[in-house]
Design brief:
By secondary structure, the chain is an alpha+beta fold. 24% of the residues lie in helices and 37% in strands. The protein contains two helices and four strands, in the order E-H-E-E-E-H.
C-alpha cells in the first residue's frame, strides 16, 4: 500500500468523520447497517477519497450446511477523485481483510 494511504474504520471518531466527509462528496449510505469495523474509508494524503460498507457475516442455508458470505452494501468514491484507482484499492484492501 502507498505510504500516504491508509484505511480507517467507523470504530474511531477520525474514521467516522472521514466516512461522513467522503459521503458528502459521493452519496450518503446507511453506515449504521454494518458493524463499525466494516465501515471503511480510504484516506490518501489526509483526504478521505472512498468508502465501503460490508456486512461480513451473512449466511445461506443449504441441506448440507450453511454457507457464510460477506455482502457489500455500498461502495463509492468522491466525484472529484474518480478514475484514480481508489475503488479498486479499497475493494482489494477489504477482500484481504475478509
Amino acid at each position: 500500500m502507498n505510504p500516504h494511504c491508509r484505511v480507517l474504520t467507523a470504530q474511531t471518531e477520525e474514521g467516522r468523520r472521514a466516512l461522513q466527509e467522503v459521503m458528502e462528496r459521493s452519496y450518503v449510505a446507511d453506515a449504521a447497517s454494518v458493524p463499525a469495523q466494516w465501515a471503511r474509508v480510504r484516506v490518501v494524503d489526509g483526504v478521505p477519497v472512498s468508502f465501503i460498507l460490508v456486512d461480513p457475516d451473512r449466511r445461506m442455508e443449504f441441506p448440507g450446511g450453511d454457507l457464510r458470505y460477506a455482502f457489500i452494501n455500498d461502495v463509492a468514491t468522491r466525484e472529484d477523485r474518480r478514475g484514480e484507482g481508489h475503488f479498486r484499492a479499497i475493494m482489494e484492501d477489504t477482500f484481504a481483510s475478509l
